[in-house]
Write a structure and sequence with these properties.
The structure holds three protein chains of three kinds. Chain A is mostly helical. Chain A has one domain: Helix Hairpins, CATH 1.10.287.3510. Chain A contains six helices and no strands. In chain B, about 65% of the residues lie in helices and about 0% in strands. The chains are: A mainly alpha, B mainly alpha, C mainly alpha.
């Protein structure tokens, strides 16, 4: 595809690559949640869905040439914010990771309950048995 | 697709390996020490309560992978897990409630300087350390509990009655 | 900032008690239930005290950790907040009192965990209502949702699979909400709701804000069970145990509607929602189809609990219609309907729970002449049914009246027709059940004796008293609707409408 001839500015794709990646991951996870019949694959899709959002948040906090937001010992004088990446998205995503792990734990427990009852974890067979 | 019956697997191939057992026995104390380090150094380096708690939980999971799951489960029973869970969370909300009782708002750690012999600014740092310890204990208990629920055969739980309504 | 501690007690007491209950349960099992009731009572008392203060003084603020907003998290109590908080805590107290007999009957060996999760669910719901920070709302939303998935899965045969489906839908909804918060954080740098409301009007032309709004609305619509994405609701609420469905059915979706009001009218002002973007119009058309769809599908059900789940979908359509009409009368009708629908759904699901546990089935056609054995229960059913249909002096009439006034104010004659038609559908629905129960020929009596040869008699007292209180509330709050509107709801309408 000749992008320049169609008039699409290349910078849409190259400079915003983190947005494209997160949307791609999110759609992969979403497809797995909807399209797969196995319950464990659905849960993996849900995990990918949530992970893409975590990746997105982290990517919006980064700055060029900056270091991790930990102030070293014995730092005298003022701190320049331009030298440290934004810590707020990291803090929010810690909570989101905990939520993701808890949801995963609950999902696994539910799958075990379903398996004990129906002896299968394929969605179409469960719907026939119900 | 049917999952493999775990009881059959246990009879065919009980898992025993000298190398894995020895290496795990040597490594697990260091892993736990590192987990405690990560909990305590949340302010100085990447770390904190949740991360350290996961490392501590991973040490128990490694133990149950090297040895028999049900053996480890007898030692770290469901009751102990639940008590750790609740105690960790009560430490977190308890510190906040103590700050509330000492006159400030909830989770206002500077009020802890009435209890501890430090100035209000340093009391905020100690308060955060306290709640990180609580979070670490709870996360360790929850990680171990999730793994045990998934991996064990539930032989020790007796007859499982159905949890539905009698219709 | 307020100096009283009630704003934090309303959250902390159920939260810490839910951590205590597993410890107490391992020690002495009998103390769990009184502990839960005590925690819910303190929470109810705090919420009523806060409502009192808000009526006298205006908006309250409480800063967590003494950090000023927007750097710290704050709890804000204005009229809308305090009103919904009172509704949530009173109803959860009544359902908590009534849960004991159903828990003892259905899953007594897991009673400790049930009470712990019950309190976690109530904490999550109250936290959603109380907080003034957009990300804190996500945290409490996930607490309430996870407790809900687990509670629903304890039920009967189809419950784990229904809860699994609910979990997939609910996670998508919460993640979309989180994405909306993230987009707003990129352009404004703030997470506090009042701060966002201040910073956003200069940015209404940007696409990022539009995308954030879209993500918010879709995420909240999933949680609120609005028409196209309501699919998780009938299965989840039908297969849940009775003690659980009577808690989650009145409250979870209403709190979702409260979040929708906050997003559409507090964070994004009415000039965005109504004038710049046709969001309110789209929402009102979707909600009209929700009302019709819910009523028609409810007519097709013979399982009483499933019928009530579809009626709940229709009721959420009413509230969303009130929000989407975007004028004063419509929004007042929506907020009043949040209160009324919580009461009606709580009493109806309690009635169904009692019927199911006493007789053992839920098919409508097997309840013939059951009013001879359970007169009070069926009387409460009749009162709640009249309220859903919208007959004065029950409270349902007054909220429908305000919704009609709002539709007339906006010159939306189609919505007037939809509201009146849905009342007719509800009348057909509930009078069908009432006719089967009360007016069957007296020799037809299919239910007979209850399970294990026990004779069929009235509901146990711990369930009967909350049901009677709810029915009295439906009648009383209907009569007092004018006072409620003039003291509370009138001031809860955001500026600009």
């Amino acid at each position: 595809m000749k992008i320049k001839e169609r008039g699409l500015p290349l910078e849409w794709i190259v400079s915003k690559y983190n947005y494209w990646i997160y949307i791609l991951l999110m759609m992969i996870g979403f497809y797995a949640m909807i399209g797969k019949k196995n319950l464990v694959k659905k849960v993996i899709g849900m995990n990918i869905f949530q992970t893409s959002i975590i990746l997105y948040f982290i990517s919006i906090g980064s700055k060029k040439g900056a270091t991790i937001p930990v102030v070293e010992h014995g730092h005298g004088g003022t701190i320049q914010a331009i030298q440290y990446i934004n810590p707020i998205p990291h803090v929010l995503m810690l909570t989101a990771i905990v939520v993701m792990v808890s949801t995963f734990g609950v999902a696994m427990a539910l799958i075990i309950m379903i398996y004990r009852k129906y002896h299968t974890i394929e969605e179409d067979e469960i719907l026939k048995l119900r | 697709m049917h999952l493999i019956n775990p009881e059959v697997l246990q009879v065919i191939a009980p898992f025993e390996d000298v190398i894995i057992r020895t290496v795990c026995r040597l490594l697990i104390p260091f892993i736990q020490l590192y987990g405690l380090y990560v909990i305590a150094h949340g302010a100085e380096s990447p770390g904190g309560g949740f991360q350290g708690g996961v490392i501590l939980g991973a040490s128990f999971i490694l133990l149950s992978l090297a040895y028999d799951v049900d053996e480890v489960r007898k030692r770290v029973s469901e009751k102990k897990n639940l008590i750790f869970c609740s105690v960790g969370l009560l430490i977190y909300s308890g510190i906040g409630a103590v700050c509330l009782a000492l006159g400030g708002n909830y989770l206002n750690y500077s009020r802890l300087h009435h209890l501890l012999p430090v100035d209000p600014v340093y009391a905020r740092a100690l308060g955060i350390f306290g709640i990180e310890v609580g979070v670490g204990i709870t996360v360790m208990a929850v990680m171990v509990s999730i793994f045990f629920d998934l991996a064990s055969n539930h032989e020790d739980q007796g007859e499982r009655t159905s949890l539905g309504m009698d219709r | 900032m307020t100096t009283s501690s009630y704003p934090i007690l309303i959250i902390i007491v159920p939260l810490m008690t839910s951590f205590l209950i597993p410890l107490v349960g391992w020690w002495r099992k009998r103390f769990c239930y009184p502990l839960m009731i005590a925690a819910l009572s303190i929470s109810t008392f705090s919420s009523v005290a806060i409502l009192n203060e808000v009526i006298e003084q205006g908006t309250l603020h409480y800063y967590l950790g003494n950090w000023d907003p927007p750097w710290g998290i704050e709890y804000v109590f204005d009229h809308l907040n305090a009103f919904v908080a009172v509704i949530v805590s009173v109803i959860s107290l009544l359902i908590g009192i009534s849960s004991k007999s159903m828990v003892e009957k259905e899953f007594s060996q897991k009673a400790t965990y049930f009470y712990c999760l019950f309190l976690l669910q109530v904490t999550g719901l109250l936290g959603i209502v109380v907080t003034g920070d957009a990300f804190n709302l996500y945290v409490f939303l996930e607490i309430a949702s996870l407790a809900g998935y687990t509670l629903i899965a304890i039920g009967e045969d189809g419950a784990p699979f229904a809860s699994f489906n609910y979990m997939l839908y609910g996670t998508v909804g919460a993640c979309f909400y989180l994405l909306g918060v993230g987009y707003l954080y990129i352009v404004t740098g703030s997470l506090n709701m009042a701060d966002l409301a201040r910073l956003l009007p200069g940015l209404y032309h940007s696409k990022v804000v539009l995308m954030a709004f879209a993500f918010f609305i879709v995420g909240v619509a999933i949680k609120m069970a609005l028409f196209p994405v309501h699919v998780w609701l009938p299965d989840a609420y039908t297969y849940a145990p009775s003690a659980v469905s009577s808690l989650v059915a009145p409250l979870t979706t209403k709190v979702g509607a409260y979040v929708a009001i906050r997003i559409m009218y507090t964070i994004f002002t009415p000039s965005f929602t109504r004038d710049l973007v046709p969001a309110a119009t789209i929402l009102s058309w979707i909600s009209a189809s929700a009302i019709l769809f819910g009523c028609i599908l409810a007519l097709a059900q013979t399982d009483l609990k499933r019928m009530l789940a579809y009626v709940l979908v229709a009721e959420m359509g009413y509230i969303a219609l009130g929000i989407g009409l975007a004028n004063k009368n419509g929004l007042m009708g929506a907020i009043l309907h949040i209160q009324n629908d919580a009461l009606m759904m709580a009493s109806l699901f309690l009635v169904v729970g009692v019927l199911a546990s006493k007789t053992g089935f839920r098919n409508i056609y097997q309840f013939k002449n059951i009013h001879k054995k359970m007169p009070i229960t069926m009387a409460i059913f009749v009162v709640s049914a009249l309220s859903i249909i919208g007959i004065p002096p029950t409270c349902g009439f007054f909220s429908k009246w305000y919704l009609l006034l709002g539709a007339i104010d906006g010159h939306q004659w189609f919505f007037v027709a939809v509201l009146l038609a849905s009342s007719l559908f509800n009348a057909i629905l509930f009078f069908r059940v009432i006719e089967i129960v009360y007016f069957s020929p007296s020799e037809e009596c299919e239910h007979g004796a209850g399970p294990v040869g026990k004779s069929l008699d009235e509901a146990p007292l711990s369930v009967l008293i909350p049901m009677i209180l709810l029915a009295l509330g439906i009648l009383l709050l209907g009569v007092l609707s004018g006072k409620i509107i003039s003291t509370i709801i009138q001031f809860a309408i955001p500026k600009g409408l």
